[in-house]
Design a protein that fits this description.
The structure holds two protein chains of two kinds. By secondary structure, chain A is of the alpha+beta class. Chain A has 28 helices and 24 strands. In chain A, strands 4, 5, 6, 7, 8, 9 and 10 form a seven-stranded mixed beta sheet that branches. In chain A, a hairpin with a 2-residue loop joins strand 8 and strand 9. The longest helix of chain A has 38 residues. Chain A is globular. Chain A starts with 5 loop residues before the first helix and ends with a helix. Chain B has a three-stranded antiparallel beta sheet. The longest helix of chain B has 30 residues. Chain B starts with a helix and ends with a helix. Classes of the chains: A alpha+beta, B alpha+beta. Chains A and B meet through helix 1 and helix 3 of A and helix 2, helix 3 and strand 3 of B.
Chain lengths: 885, 118
């Protein structure tokens, strides 16, 4: 029976009773006699309605209307309640939306659960060139594709967010693109939004100018979504490609956090990739991510076993060339594995997984505090309305009805809070995503509300409603008419039992706030440790420039000469104090390692080829020996400057100057003997968080390979924009056609600390918010208790108690709560913080200083929160307090 | 709203429900017919309060023991009445009610008979 059919039913009932009356009147010949026989029509209708079972629903609407009226009557309470709930629910939803986008959401392809990623067990580290540990080489991909039986299709794409120069002349700009195997779209079972998608026929080895598929977004922004774009040309790295189709609207690639603008078949690589990556047959360049679609009936575990079983011949067929024998042997022993791939791949996961789950826990605790505050407020309201409830019980209101009305209030508040919270969460999750997005590593996340996020919010709303609504509702229903009417609010002293639940809530709030504050202090200190960490070199006032020298490809000698010319010319430009080249920019600029042996020690080291002046520019002190100079340019001897860690590792405490070591052979890097001419102080290399590696610097002039581009450190006092403009002007005149890119060194380093900055900012924000909420909660409860003890305090004052004594009385009450709360909180914090260790830098999670600092902060806040009501109580005029009796 | 009156209604209710179901066993009927039928068959002994008939009818309808439809009366096609008829579930219910009723009256009769003897 539905309430919206009610009107029809009412009319029908009236009609039924009317026809009865008519018949009866015909029979008795008198309408009023018939009416008498029927009885009170209104009452009949009321009883029939009862039989329909609408009363319950009717009452529910009444209760909701009543709740709305009561809430609206106290707008201050309403706004505090809705705002704190909105903050809590909004924060939870925002972080969950991020977790969902990064971790939970499936790829927008049919049957994503059938997809599995294929990689080398334990990763590809220790050999060749790679972007990340899960990537494979093209020859290995071909082997897997042709020999596996577990998958109906195996696809590959160039992962890692590679960008390409698209367009011609001054219009050219870098956009993210993919090189994909021919079966990419077919294996994913995607259909085009326009035109057609790439097929295996497009990906033939040696294809000259294959067709290109655009992403839907790129098609919209660059071609206005016109179907006439099909057949037009897109110039990628100077080579025109015919546009053949558009990928589906919601498909943004297989990497979470990255998107793509176009996809070309892998066979186009020789045209669009730099030379070192361009050779498709190189067995030491790891640049493809591989995904397979399982055949029906195969599980990921079975596929993984199958891959392991077939690995040896595949590895044998793809042995890397030019490596030392033991490296090749290690390669032979590698095996493949399959992992679930339905939600794509993402470097974000390993980086932010722990952080995001932890943030979700933090926001849940903040919401808990907000809820307990609200529960306290509602309890206070319920107690204040004790008389009203008592009167209603006395008049015959069922207690369930009182509970229901109180719950309706909570429900309305929770619903309003979550509606506002949803809106807030959009802003917050977007802000966090923007926070994590850097210039070099743009983050594109789909944060739209899907069913999972909405059900999460609904569940959170219901949970909060129960958390803060049930106790006050039960309290309301317990109203004892006699007792409440007799004493009202005039008890001489407060009844201890009455406040016990509120006390427990305050203790819990203090405990939880302490945990959050400990977390906040830990993350802020960890971030500070990183920010103030001495990396061993100067990072301020330095610009990093990248000149692309790979188009057209130059020979060894020509590229060296061009790099030297550029360096010399840049040094003469205005505002440039000094400049130096390097093959690897420190911190975040990549890593290059070679095996090293000297005497009996066999290890590895980071290799960097730099120009003279590199060390003085970065202010890396030379501790012994000398810097490179112009004389270090012959074939012999090859010289090197090493760092302290290198010396320790290979030569112990002996003087290394003049001693030699040999590098292990790798493709293009033949085994070489180096003579040590200098020792530098230790510096960080790739990651500030990692310990110092053994490092070798060699002069750029003795770099065994041709340079494809040149990294320049440029030191200047002038603002970066001025320097960049200067260099671009000079470049356009002297070397037109060489693309250049610029970064501020310090920004690049700080961008690498974004996770720490995020954790410090958010945990600090939430920690302070939690402490604030807990203090407000305590303030409220103390005020409330004082209000109930007015008479008692009045009498005490009248009998001669001095105000400081009264203050002490109240503060003692707060202090007991604080100490119990701090005790519980400290125990929980000590038990839980080890989970944060992986996110901390040079800081133990059980750091006593952190605990003491957090407890001190909280105690100070609580002291302020309880002193205010205490002082007010001590200034009570005894006469006023007692007169209202 | 007092408890007393609701108790009394419930006591009547069970019996009234059975009487209605029993009446409808002979075929569909509208409210007035049902009232008159109960009145007639009990020789006006049981004066069914018309007012209590309709809540009972709607309650039975909600429990799906009876179903209702607006139909024109036999001869007069212009006037429509709400005709109630027994559903299969209602028939089952009637059988159960009847046996319960017989047990109850039988038991009461035995008690009363002993009382007379004594």
């Amino acid at each position: 029976m539905f309430w919206w059919r009610r009107e029809g039913r009412e009319q029908e009932l009236e009609r039924e009773l009317r026809s009865h009356l008519e018949l009866e009147a015909e029979e008795q010949g008198d309408l009023s006699a018939a009416r008498r026989a029927l009885g009170n029509q209104t009452r009949i209708m009321e009883e029939v309605r009862d039989a329909w079972g609408w009363i319950g629903l009717d009452q529910l609407f009444e209760d909701l209307r009543y709740a709305l009226r009561t809430i609206r009557a106290s707008p201050a309470f309403l706004s505090v309640a809705v705002l704190s709930l909105a903050l809590g629910i909004g924060a939870n939803t925002a972080i969950f939306a991020l977790v969902n986008a990064v971790r939970l959401r499936n790829l927008p392809v049919p049957d994503p659960q059938e997809l599995a990623t294929i990689q080398i067990r334990g990763g590809n580290r220790g050999m060749g060139l790679s972007g990340d540990a899960s990537q494979l080489t093209y020859p290995l991909f071909l082997q897997i594709r042709d020999h596996q039986q577990a998958f109906s299709g195996v696809l590959a794409w160039s992962s890692g967010g590679q960008t390409f120069l698209v367009g011609e002349g001054a219009q050219a700009h870098r956009v993210p693109g993919l090189l994909v195997s021919g079966n990419f779209f077919r294996t994913l079972r995607l259909s085009p939004a326009a035109g057609r998608l790439l097929t295996p026929e497009d990906d033939r080895p040696g294809c000259a100018a294959p067709g290109v598929v655009l992403s839907y977004g790129f098609w919209q922004t660059e071609f206005g979504g016109q179907s006439s774009a099909m057949g037009r040309r897109l110039t990628v790295e100077g080579h025109p490609h015919e546009i053949i189709g558009v990928a589906p609207v919601n498909f943004s690639g297989l990497e979470v956090g990255r998107n793509f603008d176009f996809a070309l078949p892998i066979c186009a690589q020789s045209n669009v990739l730099p030379a070192w990556e361009a050779s498709p047959l190189r067995t030491d360049v790891y640049w493809l991510s591989i995904l397979g679609r399982l055949k029906p009936g195969w599980s990921v575990a079975q596929a993984s076993q199958h891959l392991q079983a077939i690995s040896p011949p595949l590895m044998e067929a793809t042995l890397p060339v030019g490596y030392a024998a033991d490296s090749v042997e290690r390669y032979r022993e590698r095996s493949l594995e399959a992992l679930p791939g339905g939600n794509g791949i993402s470097p974000l996961r390993s980086q932010y997984d722990a952080a995001l789950w932890l943030l979700l826990g933090i926001t849940a605790l903040v919401l808990f505090i907000a809820c307990s505050n609200l529960a306290n407020l509602m309890l206070a309201r319920a107690t204040a309305r004790q008389r009203e409830f008592a009167v209603r019980v006395a008049l015959g209101a069922p207690r369930m009805r009182l509970v229901r009305q109180a719950l309706c209030e909570s429900l309305l508040l929770a619903a309003a809070g979550s509606a506002l919270g949803l809106a807030l969460s959009r802003l917050l999750s977007g802000a966090v995503a923007r926070f994590l997005s850097t210039e070099n590593n743009p983050l594109v996340l789909d944060l739209s509300m899907d069913a999972r996020v909405l059900s999460f919010t609904a569940a959170v709303t219901i949970a909060t409603c129960i958390l803060f609504g049930v106790m006050p509702a039960l309290r309301a229903s317990r109203a004892e008419p006699m007792a409440a009417m007799k004493t009202g609010s005039r008890g001489l002293t407060a009844d201890r039992e009455r406040f016990s639940f509120q006390r427990v809530l305050v203790v819990l709030q203090i405990a939880v706030s302490l945990m959050l504050l400990v977390g906040a202090v830990l993350f802020v200190r960890s971030f500070r440790n990183l920010m103030t960490l001495d990396p061993g070199f100067r990072e301020r006032g330095i610009l990093v420039a990248w000149f692309d020298l790979s188009h057209p490809p130059l020979g060894y000698g020509a590229s060296k000469r061009l790099e030297r010319d550029i360096l010399a010319e840049v040094r003469t430009l205005p505002h440039v104090e000094s400049a130096a080249t390097t093959t690897t920019v420190l911190i975040g600029g990549g890593a290059w390692s070679l095996g090293v042996h000297s005497g009996s020690t066999d290890w590895w080291a980071r290799f960097t080829w730099v120009s003279p002046g590199h060390f003085s520019l970065l202010e890396i002190p030379i501790l012994a020996g000398r810097d490179f100079d112009a004389s270090d340019n012959g074939d012999f001897p090859k010289v090197a400057v090493v760092n302290e860690t290198f010396v320790h590792r290979f030569f112990g405490n002996t003087n290394p100057i003049g001693r030699t070591f040999r590098s292990r052979t790798e493709p293009n890097y033949p085994e070489t003997e180096y003579q040590i001419v200098g020792v530098t102080r230790d510096t960080r290399y790739f990651d500030l968080r990692e310990p110092v590696d053994p490092m070798v610097y060699a002069p750029a002039s003795q770099n065994p390979v041709a340079v494809l581009g040149s990294h320049l450190y440029i030191r200047s006092q002038a603002p970066p924009s001025v320097v960049i403009a200067n260099i671009r002007r000079w470049l356009a005149v002297s070397h037109p056609g060489i693309p250049a890119e610029f970064r501020v060194f310090q920004t690049q380093i700080e961008d690498g600390l974004i996770r720490e900055r995020l954790m410090a900012a958010l945990s600090g924000f939430f920690g302070v918010l939690a402490a604030l909420l807990a203090t407000i909660g305590l303030y409220g409860v103390i005020c409330y208790i004082m209000e109930r003890r007015r008479n008692e305090i009045g009498i005490r004052l009248a009998l001669g108690a001095r105000p400081p004594k009264v203050v002490g009385l109240v503060m003692k009450e707060a202090a007991v709560l604080l100490i119990i709360g701090l005790g519980i909180g400290a125990a929980c914090a000590l038990a839980l913080t080890p989970a944060t260790t992986s996110l901390l830098f040079r800081l133990s999670a059980n750091d006593p200083l952190t605990l003491v600092a957090a407890a001190g902060l909280l105690a100070a806040a609580v002291a302020v929160g309880s002193y205010l009501p205490a002082r007010r109580a001590s200034r009570l005029d005894p006469m006023t307090a007692l007169r209202c009796e | 709203m007092t408890n007393e009156s609701s108790d009394r209604i419930q006591l009547l209710q069970g019996t009234l429900d059975m009487l209605i179901l029993r009446t409808l066993l002979f075929g569909p009927a509208h409210g007035h017919q049902i009232a008159k039928h109960i009145q007639r068959t009990t020789d006006d002994l049981l004066q069914v309060e018309h007012g209590s008939l309709y809540p009972a009818l709607h309650r039975l309808e909600r429990k799906r023991w009876i179903a209702a439809r607006w139909e024109p009366a036999g001869k007069d096609l212009k006037r429509e009445f709400k005709y109630y008829r027994l559903t299969p579930a209602g028939k089952k219910r009637l059988v159960a009610e009847e046996s319960k009723w017989k047990q109850l009256t039988g038991a009461i009769a035995r008690v009363m008979a002993r009382a007379e003897e004594g």
